[in-house]
Amino acid sequence: MLLYIHVPFCRTKCAYCAFASQEYIQEPAAVYLRLVQQELEVRSRQIQHRKVTSIYMGGGTPTVLPVASLARIVDAVYKNFDPVPGCEFTLEANPENILEMDDLQVFSSMGINRISLGMQSLDDQLLGTLERGHDSRQAIKAARMIRQAGFALLSLDFIWGIPGQTLKGWLGELAHAVHLAPDHLSCYGLGLEPGTRLTARIRAGELEMPEERAQARMYMHGAEYLESCGFLQYEISNFARMGYSCKHNLGYWAGEPFLGAGPSAVSTIDGTRWQNPPAIRDYQTLGGKNFSDLEFEKLSYTRKVNELVMLSLRTSRGLNLHDYKHLTGQSFSRRYAGIIKALHQNNLIRMAHGYLRLTRNGMLVSDSILEKFME
């Protein structure tokens, strides 16, 4: 089972962010801390203390919490769950929160062995557009400190397609990132989420997104560059050195059961899914009812089939056609023969050794392709 813990606090809200997060304030953070420990205990009893194969603390920004608060959450994890030997334990961090070597060493002593650092860009002008809380100098320093603290697993997060960004600039950022010697890179295309400050500025004409062709070139050439540097693309937005793919992400895409704790966190166990409310106040009300007053969704046959196809085709390995037939009793290649032929002729998919996968061109337009295969 995968375990995800959502920390819903940030120092400030970035201009593009639509995640369930809020500014860190001591009083609601104290309420959250008490409740998430309670939830971990309750859920552990409900699912009978299952073994945990990976742990991921995300947000928000987990490192905006005091180290002592993070330690209490980690203690609750070890008290209530049984991580397997060598369990991957990821902590998301922002550069502005990586200030003390002592803090990093405490994280390591907790059993955290992988840091996912939210750089997003190494161009100070673009960081300003995104309204990030750090500059490029802080980002580089943080990455180096994480390595110096002895963390063997370091992932860097970046965004491409930012207003004002060019292909040359993007490739330059990637070259600098590679020089920092991470094991893993997550590179996401900027999405314009409703209600964010960045979306409002673009719609008002204050900023302009790179044209579609330029964004496509950023994706294609960026992926080619990373692979030339030894980073294998194992998912639409993720690249890793051989043997360093994120186990937690791989588990999600393989359909493994996962438990989420904290506001807005989603869980799927034994074919049943539920989601916690995003607001701290509603999460507190749920805690007052011992985390039992939720709507539980039994995943339908159609949902299971769609998720198998959607999640599998996000990965470079692709959809296992035998797994599809085992679940549905049908041949995927026969059912969608016409669509597959058209996509193949346009160099958007490949089929070999019992798998159907998207090419890199196909990954670029994955949303429109996946729609064609939904039940």
Automatic annotation (TrEMBL):
Keyword Glycoprotein: no
Names of the cofactor(s): [4Fe-4S] cluster
InterPro entries: Aldolase_TIM, Coproporphyrinogen-III_oxidase, Elp3/MiaA/NifB-like_rSAM, HemN_C, HemW-like, rSAM, rSAM_sf
Keyword Amino-acid biosynthesis assigned: no
A Pfam family that the UniProt record links to this protein: HemN_C
Main location: cytoplasm
Protein's UniProt name: Heme chaperone HemW
Origin species: Desulfonatronospira thiodismutans ASO3-1
